[in-house]
Design a protein that fits this description.
By secondary structure, this protein is an alpha/beta fold. The chain folds into three domains: 198 residues, NAD(P)-binding Rossmann-like Domain (Rossmann fold, 3-Layer(aba) Sandwich); 89 residues, NAD(P)-binding Rossmann-like Domain (Rossmann fold); 136 residues, Rossmann fold (3-Layer(aba) Sandwich), CATH 3.40.50.720. The protein is 43% helix and 14% strand. It has a six-stranded parallel β-sheet with strand order 3-2-1-4-5-6, sandwiched between helices. A six-stranded parallel β-sheet has the order 11-10-9-12-13-14, with helices on both faces. β4, α5 and β5 form a beta-alpha-beta unit. The radius of gyration is 24 Å and the shape is elongated. 47% of the residues are buried. The structure holds nicotinamide-adenine-dinucleotide and uridine-5'-diphosphate-xylopyranose (UDX). The site of uridine-5'-diphosphate-xylopyranose (UDX) has 19 residues, from α9.
Length: 460
């Protein structure tokens, strides 16, 4: 089949890979190429073991790769050959200079803009898929129009709302697709091109349009609202632990109010992942930049409560285990920032592990998909750490189990069998409230959930 259009995506990461695989899957007459400066990543996309674990991804990559989906390293040529370019490079928090630890580090997308300008031999539509501070498109346009050449670059904003672990179903059936454009003739024409692609599989009513700045800002705000719900319920979990209220019961009662809704009300050890913290900090930085001090500090507290929740969890472990962890073996079940992903970026497990190692605990870390990333995250940190995939083997000989990721696997463990192999008194700290606490208590464990009374066999 002859390709109608060529699409390029710059950045073959957690967003670029799955989102382009979905377009290739749904639009067989489009030829999609994904490029990256990281050549190992491109090799992995072309291999049997994809660089990221995402349920359902293997299947669609197998169907499309080599047909109309290609992972390549020749960025220069690909820019020349493609008419529509998605930019999906990372935009982490800046670690240096002005705005360090808060502003988005825009060096990757700026390099991309310069590359597009340098290698283009025709006019193009450039689509921001990365999450960017509001008004970034303006800077991109300034760079792209700086050569005053004969080519036109129309910049669109099309933020990605998929979540890891559910990326494929989110991409296949999104709540909405947002496209921001200039309201000019050429802006609207470019927007129509992009709508044409998405309307192959997404209902027209779900494809919404706006001006570019609203689109850029909506992405930051959506993440801020989601994270705010997690911090809100986590803040109340601290109060529950002081008052014998049960956070699951409170969340159920509150979430049944249809104005509030029941999603994103699961208390735990705090949110992780590459997006929430970075995007809120970015929002805080923008507010400060525009002189909105009160607004900035409102959102900054969402991040502060998240840090507090992780500190509280470690303090509860230390208090529960008689004030010392030195020489004690602690089994960590789950290192990924959430279930169904191998991603450990900003995972609460990193902070918790570091704190436990600082207390001279020995860690045995288990996770079905994230052990390689866990080892990289903890490399160079002083202390004894082992990585064992099998949870039964990992728990054997330990003083405590910590559940840090909500993998289904951990709900169905044989805790009686595990208890027998552990040092007594044995402890469970369930950082995700996913196991049957009463049952584990009856087996003999001292059980410490989040936001619920602890179940302890000690009389004092
Ligand atoms: P990622 O780090 O997994 O991937 C980014 C890729 O871009 C890397 O492989 C990197 O090598 C590549 N890259 C950087 N500069 C390049 C250049 N000049 N040329 C070619 N390749 C280059 O990041 P990600 O998780 O895919 O996130 C990408 C963007 O999407 C971020 O802005 C993020 O906030 C946003 N986002 C992420 C998610 C998510 O779930 N991960 C969801 C929605 C939006
Ligand atoms: C998030 C947004 O959901 C997604 O729309 C955006 O595109 C990227 O950022 P992601 O970070 O992949 O997605 O996962 P998400 O499901 O939002 O979870 C983020 C963190 O919050 C995880 O650590 C998760 O465990 C935690 N969380 C989520 C809770 O602790 N409680 C909840 O009720 C929900």
């Amino acid at each position: 089949m002859k390709s109608k259009k060529n699409i390029l995506c710059i950045g073959a990461g957690y967003v670029g890979g799955p989102s382009m695989a979905m377009i290739a899957y749904k639009c067989p007459d489009y030829r999609i190429t994904v490029v990256d400066i990281n050549s190992d990543r491109i090799d992995a996309w072309n291999s049997e073991e994809l660089p990221i674990y995402e349920p359902g991804l293997d299947k669609i990559v197998k169907k499309t790769r080599g047909r109309n989906l290609f992972f390549k390293k020749d960025i220069e040529n690909q820019i020349k050959e493609n008419d529509i370019i998605f930019v999906s490079v990372h935009t982490p928090t800046k670690t240096y200079g002005a705005g360090a630890d808060m502003a988005a580090d825009l060096q990757y997308w700026e390099k991309t803009a310069r590359q597009i300008l340098k290698y283009s031999r025709s006019s193009k539509i450039v689509i921001e898929k990365s999450t960017l501070p509001v008004k970034t498109a303006l800077a991109m346009e300034k760079i792209l129009s700086s050569a005053k050449g004969k080519f036109r670059f129309e910049v669109l904003s099309n933020p990605e709302f998929m979540a890891e672990g559910t990326a494929i179903s989110d991409l296949e059936n999104p709540d909405r697709v947002l496209i921001g454009s200039h309201q000019t003739k050429s802006g609207l024409k470019a927007r129509a091109e992009l709508i044409k692609i998405y309307s192959r599989w997404i209902l027209k009513e779900k494809i919404i349009t706006s001006n570019i700045w609203s689109s850029e800002l909506s992405k930051l705000v959506a993440n801020a609202f989601l994270a705010q719900r997690v911090s809100s319920i986590n803040s109340i979990s601290a109060l529950c632990e002081k008052t014998d209220a049960d956070i699951s019961e409170v969340a159920e009662a509150v979430g049944m109010d249809s104005r509030i809704g029941n999603k994103f009300l699961k208390a735990g050890i705090g949110f992780g992942g590459s997006c929430f913290k970075k995007d809120i900090l970015n929002l805080v930085y923008l507010c400060r930049y525009y002189g909105l001090k009160e607004v900035a500090s409102y959102w900054e507290n969402v991040v502060k409560i998240n840090e507090y929740q992780q500190e509280r969890f470690v303090a509860n472990i230390l208090n529960g285990m008689f004030g010392t962890l030195a020489g004690k073996k602690i089994c960590i079940l789950g290192f990924a920032f959430k279930a169904d992903t191998g991603d450990t970026r900003e995972s609460p497990a990193i902070y918790i592990s570091q704190k436990l190692l600082a207390e001279h605990a020995e860690l045995i870390i288990s996770d079905p998909k994230a052990l390689k990333n866990a080892a990289a995250d903890l490399s160079g940190i002083k202390g004894k750490v082992k990585y064992i995939e099998d949870p039964y083997e990992a728990a054997s000989g330990c003083h405590a189990l910590l559940i840090l990721t909500d993998w289904d696997l951990y709900m169905n463990l044989d805790f009686r069998k595990i208890y027998k192999t552990m040092v007594k008194p044995a402890f469970i700290f369930d950082g995700r409230n996913i196991i049957d606490h009463k049952k584990c208590f009856s087996i003999g464990f001292n059980v410490y959930p989040i936001g619920k009374p602890a179940l302890s066999h000690f009389k004092i």
